[in-house]
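In the design runs reported in the main text, the only information available to the sequence generator was the tokenized backbone. The following block is the verbatim input for one such run; it is reproduced so that readers can re-run the procedure and compare outputs position by position.
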């Protein structure tokens, strides 16, 4: 990988998941948090990370913002980093619900890319092999960084939002339907918890991978015959 200075802002689930895999590959990442004590606590878990100061943010080649949508623009505005950054410096917007064009419109002098993760942070943490969506081809230095985490696809950011909403809607609908049916049958809440946290997720994973067992395949046939 090309040597470069990389910074991460955002040490929640997504930030932690990405750092875990970058750290395994020995990628040196600077970490910024307005509360230095939180940054210090975070970097203790990753031997290849270090703390970034405010003054160092403009010296980076790539600044990754793994922040909630509501915090991205205020963060850029509060630090006033846009006046000191050159076009060669890249800012990566990872907020799912913040269109990258909104940032570019507000800060036209910044070189902003959108890289959106399709999935859940815990899945990325445990399994790697993530899927990332970007509307524009990334520079070599940024693309290499995200390919360590999985696959990068060029597509509309709106597509990612649609997929996330569909998956979340039907996941919650399934959970509520299970809860309703277990209550109706007066089954133990402990059984319901097991169904929601283990049985249902693993059946979906097996269905996706084409590895359903005999029992599940028989139920799948029942569902398909009902549809017919």
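Verbatim output:
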């Amino acid at each position: 990988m090309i040597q470069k200075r990389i910074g991460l802002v955002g040490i929640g689930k997504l930030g932690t998941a990405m750092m875990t895999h970058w750290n395994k590959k020995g990628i040196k990442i600077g970490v910024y948090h307005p509360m230095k004590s939180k940054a210090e606590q975070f970097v203790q878990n990753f031997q290849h990370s270090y703390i970034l100061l405010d003054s160092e943010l403009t010296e980076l080649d790539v600044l990754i913002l793994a922040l909630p949508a509501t915090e991205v623009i205020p963060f850029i505005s509060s630090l006033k980093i846009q006046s000191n950054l050159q076009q060669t410096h890249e800012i990566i917007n990872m907020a799912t619900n913040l269109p990258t064009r909104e940032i570019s419109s507000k800060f036209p002098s910044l070189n902003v890319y959108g890289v959106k993760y399709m999935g859940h942070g815990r899945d990325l943490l445990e399994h790697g092999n993530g899927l990332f969506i970007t509307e524009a081809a990334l520079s070599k230095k940024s693309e290499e960084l995200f390919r360590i985490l999985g696959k990068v696809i060029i597509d509309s950011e709106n597509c990612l939002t649609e997929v996330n909403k569909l998956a979340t809607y039907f996941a919650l609908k399934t959970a509520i339907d299970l809860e309703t049916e277990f209550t109706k049958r007066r089954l133990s809440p402990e059984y319901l918890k097991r169904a929601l946290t283990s049985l249902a997720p693993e059946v979906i994973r097996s269905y996706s991978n084409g590895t359903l067992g005999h029992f599940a395949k028989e139920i799948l046939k029942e569902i398909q015959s009902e549809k017919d």
